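Give me the fold.
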Amino acid sequence: MKQTRVLTSKKKIEEERNKLEAQRLASQTLKVAKDAEAYANRQLVRAGLTPQERAELERNMNKDKWESIGKMRFDGVYMLQDGKTTSSDGDGFLSKFIGAQMGKDMLSKKSSK
């Protein structure tokens, strides 16, 4: 009877060791798989966009930009500035444009009266 209990105890201890070892191997397998996945993700982030993806992105951005420019309408007022003349009074292009727009508005008000 005592021998049977000892053998049963040894068998239970061996089963528990086997379960523990199986769980340890399962957790190591999971860790290795997750580490490999994390490594692959880090490499993808590090690599950035592929040249094809980058070219496609730039093409789409430029397409949108040129479509927007193509939709712009100007009222026949074009201001050109040659590279030789510079303004010493500090007026930039924006102030010249606003002044031209105001002058155009004044002319259109005079002609409508």
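DSSP finds three helices and no strands in the chain.
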